[in-house]
Amino acid sequence: MTGLPVERRTETSPLVDPATGVEFGRAVVSREFEVHYAVSAAAEAFKTWSRTTPGERQLALLKLADLLEANASDVADAEIRETGKIRDVVLGEEIPQCVDQIRFFAGAARALGTAAAGEYVPGATSYQRREAVGVIAQITPWNYPLMMAVWKIAPALAAGNTVVIKPADTTPSSTVLLASLAAQVLPAGVFNVVLGDRDTGRLLVEHPVPAMVSLTGSTRAGIEVARSAAATVKRTHLELGGNAPVLVFDDVDVTAAAEGIVGAAYYNAGQDCTAATRVLVHSNIHDEFVAALAKAASAQVPGTDFGPLNSKAQLDRVLGMLSRSSATVHCGGKQYGSIGFYLEPTVISGLAQDDELVQEEAFAPVVTVQSFANDDEAIALANGVPQGLASSIWTRDTGRAAALTTRLDFGIVWVNTHGLVASEMPHGGFGASGYGKDLSMHGLEDYTRVKHVMIAH
């Protein structure tokens, strides 16, 4: 390792409560000195952490899960202050999922499998090793600060890597709290946090030591990370934007399906890469279903059923997209209230496939509706966007559902539900939604490298 940069600057950025729009604090911005210091600490810790047994790593992660569970209220306070999320949702759904995901990877660390050892060449025995990759640079988004940190650090640490993670500049606190809990059960240098903006992230990605970069963010950010990582041949793991189609056929219970889809569309104010944003409805029930969606959407109350958008910049971006659309707005479409960054729950129909609101991810409580006449048209509309993360099919015809799951070009396909996550199942997409899997054994394997050992005899 080279020496640490000698220049150290004190720089901060504002922390704003999106529910009020009021600045309540400031966060340190890490620059070259801090990034290099954190990477150096991770590199030093890797020498010993990578040699621990899966059982030792399992025990440490189980202790971390217990600590997170025991300190859920404090972590929720930090998450809510910077995201505006509904407290019952954070405490009742998100943190329990995070605890379960850490526990899953704690156990998965002891269950990595490879091909059987054997004599694949006469006179030699071969076997495979799954090894830790090294120091992992990780960058998380502002929509699920805690959960995305867990999705990254849990498999990486379970596999024997050390990490340097950079949360989004507007939502750093829950990640810092997670790291402070981890410091009670992990050796120094195993789990490191740097804070800051895009420039901080760039310093981390371009640093020569990390062997892998894992990003959850926009497609634009993923392209930049992949380009920067290529300069030093770093591995990349990219979970990028989504723009999920929801295929609704004319045999559904209209009211029940509409209510289910609205719940999946407006969860976390639609700031979810898997949000049920693009509703594609069979022409036979189009008008009836739009009316049902608008009724269900109008019953959603910002601040009670879902929180604000993350920032004024995000709110202005979405309002700009809505103002440029000439489609029919059935409900919503405007800012909600005069305090905070809330958007009314919105339903829009009459859009063409090349419209901005169809092709780009709004990342807001906005649902677009398009009509289709048959299965082929439904698939063409669904697949007619660059992103390929998640999708869903709503029908009572199980044969049709089974056939269409093979034709949807998305990494996740739900049937008669949308947005459910299981720790044991992979989460990741295709196309502009990136590559690599979170959760499941696939998520753990992504943080390993495979070595072939052959012994002549």
The separation of the N and C termini measures 39 Å
Shape: globular
From the structure provided, what is the oligomeric state, counting identical versus distinct chains?
single chain
The counted number of beta strands is 20
The assigned structural class equals alpha/beta
User: Rg from C-alpha positions?
Assistant: 23 Å
Structure report:
There is one protein chain. The protein is α/β, with parallel strands linked by helices. The chain is built from 15 helices and 20 strands. It has helices spanning 32-49, 54-70, 72-83, 87-108, 145-158, 173-182, 198-206, 219-230, 254-266, 286-298, 312-323, 356-359, 375-383, 398-405, 440-445; strands at residues 12-17, 22-28, 118-121, 124-132, 135-139, 162-166, 191-193, 212-216, 235-239, 245-248, 278-282, 328-331, 346-349, 366-372, 387-388, 390-394, 412-415, 430-431, 434-435, 448-456. Strands 12-13-14-11-10-16-17 form a 7-stranded mixed β-sheet, sandwiched between helices. Strands 7-6-5-8-9-19 form a 6-stranded mixed β-sheet, with helices on both faces. The chain is globular and about 70 Å long. The mean pLDDT is 96.
Question: SSE layout and pairings?
Answer:
Layout lengths: L11 E6 L4 E7 L3 H18 L4 H17 L1 H12 L3 H22 L9 E4 L2 E9 L2 E5 L5 H14 L3 E5 L6 H10 L8 E3 L4 H9 L5 E5 L2 H12 L4 E5 L5 E4 L5 H13 L11 E5 L3 H13 L13 H12 L4 E4 L14 E4 L6 H4 L6 E7 L2 H9 L3 E2 L1 E5 L3 H8 L6 E4 L14 E2 L2 E2 L4 H6 L2 E9 L1
Parallel strand pairs: 5-6, 5-8, 6-7, 8-9, 10-11, 10-16, 11-14, 13-14, 16-17
Antiparallel strand pairs: 1-2, 3-4, 4-20, 9-19, 12-13, 15-18
Helix pairs in contact: 2-4, 3-4, 3-6, 4-5, 9-10
